[in-house]
Amino acid sequence: MKVLILNSGSSSIKYQFIETETRRVLAKGSVERIGMKGAILNHQRHDGDKVKITGEIVDHQAGVEYILAILLSHNHGVIKDRAEIEAVGHRVVHGGEKFTGSVLITDEVMDKVQECIELAPLHNPPNIKGIRACQRLLPGLPMVGVFDTAFHHAMPDYAYMYGLPHVLYKRHAIRRYGFHGTSHFYVSRRAAEVLGRPIEQVNMVTCHLGNGCSMAAVKGGVSVDTTMGFTPVEGLLMGTRCGDLDPAAVLYIMGQEELSLNEANAMLNKHSGLAGISGVSSDMREIEQAMQEGHTGAKLAFDIFCYRVKKYLGAYAVAMGGLDAIVFTGGIGENSDLVRASVTSGLEFLGVKLDPDLNAHRNSVERAIQAADSRVAVLVIPTNEELVIALDTARIAGER
Ligand code: AMP
Questions:
Q1: Model confidence over 284-317: pLDDT tens digits?
Q2: In the structure, which protein residues have their CB atom closer than 6 angstroms to any atom of ligand 1?
Q3: Ligand 1 centroid to 66 CA: how many Å?
């Protein structure tokens, strides 16, 4: 089945057009700067043909129109007729407690996704805009929603509840949800394949380290804990997000600095993390460069980043009652040998030992990087969320 995969953000839409039987990406690209001056469409065809188009892209519907036009274009396209698009898969960030897996989008589903806006006011509205645009432009086509939160739905209550008054859970659904679920799902399945073991028998920790970072304890294929919580701010240090923090510190800072709710939100989400600590950058490449040049703020940011990952590795090994594999993915996890070496250093007592040569390659090729005498497998697995969305979309659209 040929499916269009859309990941709609507030001012961008990323897309891939995938043939699911062969798992081939026929075309991919992105529309950026929606609603701003100088909007751009970047498009790449499977044969390497690339094109960049600038134009007036006023809203998400116009963005989807551009995407459809380029897929159909004589010079850069891959289809001759819209009917060749058989289904559309949409990434949806927050499914709350309502969605435990991917679903066919119906009016009832849209109402529930709408209700989840309260939980993800920045992310769900653009996801909804992308879906509505496709419903208008491709009427009658099956559409599937794939949720970032769904893979974590089976976490036990003692892992997802906060120590807050229980009434807040009942009234406002305040609990830990976790995100990056599609990525943790993909790399955990792929890791089991690479190891040649049934996933039901493996305890693994998957580390998605990119601009946003999260880890999941995947026991027998099920996510039993994850570092992100009610929002994607909890847990690890990230590019610009602070991760774990004493909530009372936020209240204190708001008082001392006279911050509004919006300002405090921006502080936690946009001005913290690697960028806030180092004062250098949110980009791990620049942090590593500055650290190697002797910048102490960059070194501290790097150390905090790696220490948190290491700390959660220990926590999850204990939570699962053992550890068979660690998986690194995301821009940092796939590429940074320095981060992988730092995170796993001194963990011989857990049975973790890297092979420095296998770790050294700074490219995101799928491979094992543990030493021959390491009891725990350590894998680099480039993530592929779009493939998961495409396969779910084809399966659910095919079942109709
Ligand atoms: P993502 O959000 O998965 O695209 O990941 C973005 C992050 O990956 C940024 O912090 C980049 O600096 C980081 N990254 C990409 N390539 C490398 C590399 N070769 N070494 C270190 N970090 C990298």
A1: 999 999 999 999 999 999 999 999 999 999 999 9
A2: 210-211, 239, 283-285, 288, 330-332, 335-336, 362
A3: 29
Backbone angles phi, psi at 272, to 5 degrees: -110, -155
Residue spans of the domains in the chain: they are 2-147, 191-380
Strands (E), the chain: 2-8, 13-19, 24-32, 39-45, 50-55, 87-92, 103-104, 143-147, 203-209, 213-219, 222-226, 325-329, 367-368, 377-380
| pLDDT on residue 400 | 82
Q: Whose CA is nearest to atom 17 of ligand 1?
A: 335
Looking at every residue in the chain, the average pLDDT score rounds to: 96
Q: Please check whether residue 142 is in contact with residue 400, taking contact to mean a CB–CB distance below 8 angstroms.
A: yes
Atom index in ligand 1 nearest the CA of residue 211 equals 2
Nearest residue (by CA) to ligand 1, atom 8, is 331
Cα of 88 vs centre of ligand 1, distance in Å, is: 29
- Least Cα distance to 233 among 176, 186, 277 occurs for 176
- Taking alpha carbons only, the member of 399, 278, 391 closest to residue 24 is 391
Catalytic residue list contains 148? yes
2-147 and 191-380 agree in CATH topology: yes
CA distance 198 to 232: 30
Q: Which of 59, 81, 111, 148 is catalytic?
A: 148
Give the CATH H-level superfamily of domain 2-147: ATPase, nucleotide binding domain (3.30.420.40)
Both structure tokens of 237: 């240090």
| Whole-Å CA distances, 177 to 203, 234, 236 | 21, 10, 15
| Choice from 336, 339, 340, 363 to test ligand 1 binding pocket (greatest atom count within 8 A of CB) | 336
Q: Point out the ligand 1 atom lying closest to the alpha carbon of residue 383.
A: 3
Query: pLDDT grade, residue 363 (50/70/90)?
Result: confident
Q: Which pTM was predicted? A: 0.95
38 CA to centre of ligand 1 in angstroms: 26
Ligand 1: distance of its center to the CA of 217 in Å?
22
Options 3.40.50.1000, 3.30.420.40, 3.40.640.10, 3.40.710.10; CATH of 191-380? 3.30.420.40
What is the DSSP annotation of 156-178? Answer: -HHHH--SS-HHHHHHH--S---
pLDDT digits (tens, 9 = 90+) for 246-271: 999 999 999 999 999 999 999 999 99
